[in-house]
Write a sequence for this structure.
């Protein structure tokens, strides 16, 4: 299980603080203890010299020459001096052969340090320190003490030794009390420092890092939002600035990528349209050549057949004449088909005029209405009189309008409404003819402009009208499209390039 940044830093800071405070506290105690112990040694040495001097003064006037006599003369004086010293826990007097002449122990269990004959040198103090301040667990039977030994002299002759033990337990208790106070101080001060450190750490490090983490998570989720760091050291702000620069660069890169994708999609769409136009042009060219050949091959014998039928009709009567007239009607249908094929294959010479396509569409609607083509049909005109013009053959565009309007009428055999409208931009003008018929299926919409494809009943259309319309519009740099859905009617839109405005 991973711990968080704050936990790791708090633990590290707490351990470092505790170690530093404990080290500093106990080092200070150790130095103080050493100073106190040195003061105790100096004080005990001064007392020992005073005691020795007092004993020597008491034996200076005696006339007894033996060591024992000198020791006996000094015992009462020694006892009186040492009983008044509270730090003395034991003392003893020895002769020059290190035999104990007198001994007093004030603390039970105390043992003197061993002595050697070298201790008999005049004017020298010999000490033996028994002190342990870090003993754990502490035994009550072991005492901390300082043994001081000095020789006793009469004139130039030694007559004995004095060994005094000074108590150091009071010093040891004071040091241990200071240790306990230091430990409590370290704990309390460490807790205060840790709490204050947690506050500063949370404000200056953890909170900004969490903000950066949340912002990073948001960026990973796709939201390129900058982070706003209000607190923290300079490195955190520099990191936040670098993060914001990265976010800005990612946003710019995303926008550039989206532009490239949109450009690629538009290019792919244009390529798809160009491919479809190329395929359609190849189909139209092939069908045109075929239609032209068929029209010429059919046209010549058809003209002879029509001529023979007219001659034969004049020589017949009754039912035979009626049969000849019916034959001429059917031959007329074939003749119209041949003319449409010729028109599709070879549209003829172009006569370019500059005119308003909206006005031409309105004229075509009025013409068909007067001819009775819109009986039971309501035509709604939503076109705007914008005065914009196009440059092309006026008669051929009228042929397009007639074809689209009649197709819209045929899509509503029981009557309905046709809506015509126009709109434009800086480069083109578009006109739409929409019906309220049964609509077209998607697969039919894809093939609606193919030659010889029709949705009408046999005998009512040859499937060349929309193909001719598309060819006329394409030849003039425009485009014709259809939007349709089953049950919602169809809408044909013709877009033509605007003619340059006259200066």
């Amino acid at each position: 299980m991973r711990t968080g940044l704050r936990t790791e830093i708090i633990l590290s800071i707490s351990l470092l603080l505790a170690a530093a405070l404990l080290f500093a506290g106990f080092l200070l105690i150790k130095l103080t203890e050493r100073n106190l112990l040195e003061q105790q040694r100096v004080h005990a040495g001064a007392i020992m010299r005073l005691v020795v001097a007092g004993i020597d003064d008491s034996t200076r006037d005696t006339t007894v020459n033996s060591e024992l006599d000198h020791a006996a003369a000094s015992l009462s004086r020694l006892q009186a001096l040492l009983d008044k010293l509270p730090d003395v826990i034991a003392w003893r007097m020895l002769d020059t052969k290190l035999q104990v002449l007198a001994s007093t122990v004030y603390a039970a269990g105390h043992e003197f340090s061993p002595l050697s004959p070298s201790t008999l040198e005049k004017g020298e103090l010999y000490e033996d320190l028994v002190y342990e301040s870090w003993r754990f667990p502490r035994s009550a039977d072991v005492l901390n003490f300082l043994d001081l030994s000095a020789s006793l002299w009469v004139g130039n002759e030694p007559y004995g030794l004095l060994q005094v033990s000074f108590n150091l337990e009071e010093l040891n208790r004071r040091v241990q009390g200071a240790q306990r106070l230091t430990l409590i101080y370290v704990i309390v001060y460490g807790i205060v420092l840790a709490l204050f450190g947690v506050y500063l750490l949370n404000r200056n490090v953890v909170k900004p890092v969490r903000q950066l983490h949340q912002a990073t998570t948001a960026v990973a989720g796709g939201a390129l939002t900058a982070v706003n760091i209000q607190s923290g050291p300079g490195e955190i702000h520099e990191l936040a600035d670098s993060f914001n620069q990265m976010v800005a660069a990612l946003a710019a890169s995303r926008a550039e990528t989206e532009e490239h994708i949109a450009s690629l999609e538009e290019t792919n769409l244009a390529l798809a349209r160009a491919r479809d136009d190329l395929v359609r042009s190849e189909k139209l060219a092939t069908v045109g050549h075929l239609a032209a050949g068929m029209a010429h091959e059919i046209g010549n014998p058809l003209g002879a057949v029509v001529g023979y039928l007219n001659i034969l009709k004049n020589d017949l009567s009754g039912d035979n004449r009626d049969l000849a007239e019916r034959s001429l009607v059917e031959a007329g249908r074939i003749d119209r088909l041949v003319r449409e094929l010729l028109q599709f294959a070879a549209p003829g010479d172009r006569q370019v005029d500059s005119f308003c396509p909206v006005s031409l569409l309105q004229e075509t609607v009025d013409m068909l209405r007067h001819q009775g083509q819109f009986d039971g049909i309501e035509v709604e005109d939503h076109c705007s009189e914008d005065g914009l013009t196009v440059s092309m053959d006026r008669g051929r565009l009228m042929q397009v309008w007639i074809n689209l309007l009649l197709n819209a009428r045929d899509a509503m055999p029981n009557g309905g409404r046709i809506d015509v409208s126009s709109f434009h931009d800086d480069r083109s003008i578009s006109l739409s003819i929409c019906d309220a018929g049964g609509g077209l299926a998607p697969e039919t919409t894809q093939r609606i402009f193919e030659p010889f494809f029709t949705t009408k009943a046999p005998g009512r259309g040859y499937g060349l009208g929309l193909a001719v319309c598309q060819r006329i519009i394409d030849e003039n740099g425009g485009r014709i499209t259809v939007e349709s859905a089953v049950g919602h009617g169809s809408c044909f839109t013709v877009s033509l390039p605007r003619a340059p405005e006259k200066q």
Residues 234-315 form the longest helix (82 residues). The mean pLDDT is 78. The radius of gyration is 63 Å.
